[in-house]
Design brief:
Blueprint lengths: L12 E11 L5 E11 L3 E5 L6 H8 L7 E6 L2 E2 L8 H5 L2 E4 L11 H11 L4 H14 L15 H13 L5 E5 L7 H16 L3 E5 L3 H6 L4 E5 L2 E5 L7
Parallel strand pairs: 3-8, 3-9, 6-7, 7-8
Antiparallel strand pairs: 1-2, 1-4, 4-5, 9-10
Helix pairs in contact: 3-4, 3-5
Length: 238
């Protein structure tokens, strides 16, 4: 597979981890000697048992944590030791779906989703069109003006996903994005990620949902006992 490759082959990829290890303070290593290359415009599931370090691995990729050892590259640039003032520009190329949603409680669903576009100073007519279209896609057209505290966990999850993808990022990092929704909504959200992937966005999606993994023909990174294994798709391409 193209996923785990020699260091000399690390060219033109979205994410590259070279001999990366991570530990918290004086605790045990979460993982070690991880070398991963995620090609451009690819889609991978990230699987593994609870506590294996999936969230920690994603947090390295969106620069919330730094590797204890090893090197990290995003979009061809070494960001292992990137200065703090560089991080906002790098993160604008990412879309991140957090397990705890991280919605802004004082903003409506519409304004939460619109935030990345407004930060990028996109025209308000385009904001209105794109946000409205996306909220309809995720089934929240009747809740656009509701604040997060008035919405269910599943509805908040869909807002968080819409916010992560509205600016068409180069890379989406999604941590259990279908964990609080029923199977029908989960499939619809997966179709949104797949559509973005078809248009060139790379996606890394952490999930415990083996049923979901088995329905879509994407390979996986399996994290267990501190090591990452590349596995082929569980489903066949249509």
């Amino acid at each position: 597979m193209a996923l785990l490759r020699k260091k000399s082959d690390f060219v033109g990829d979205t994410v590259q981890l070279e001999d990366v290890g991570l530990r918290y303070a004086d605790g045990p290593e979460i993982f070690s000697n991880v070398s991963i290359s995620i090609p451009q415009s690819s889609f991978y599931f990230l699987t593994g048992p609870s506590g294996a370090g999936k969230t920690s691995l994603l947090s390295l990729m969106y620069l919330a944590k730094r590797p204890t050892v090893g090197r990290l590259k995003l979009f061809g640039d070494d960001v292992t030791d990137a200065k703090r003032n560089r991080l906002p520009a790098i993160r604008r190329r990412l879309g991140v779906v957090f397990q705890d949603f991280r919605l802004l409680e004082h903003m409506t669903a519409f304004d939460n989703v619109a935030l990345p576009l407004r930060i990028a100073q996109v025209g308000e007519a385009t904001v209105e069109k794109n946000v409205t279209e996306l909220l309809k896609w995720v089934g929240l057209e009747d809740s656009m003006q509701a604040r997060p505290s008035f919405l269910s966990g599943g509805q908040q999850q869909r807002i968080a996903i819409a916010r992560a993808v509205v600016h068409r990022p180069k890379l989406i990092l999604a941590d259990e994005p279908t964990g609080n929704v029923d199977d029908a909504i989960a499939i619809r959200l997966m179709q949104l990620f797949v559509e973005l992937h078809k248009h060139g966005t790379s996606v890394i999606l952490a999930t415990h949902n083996e049923h979901l993994v088995s329905r879509f023909p994407f390979p996986r990174l399996h994290l267990k006992d501190g090591t990452v294994t590349a596995m082929p798709p569980a489903a066949q391409a249509p």
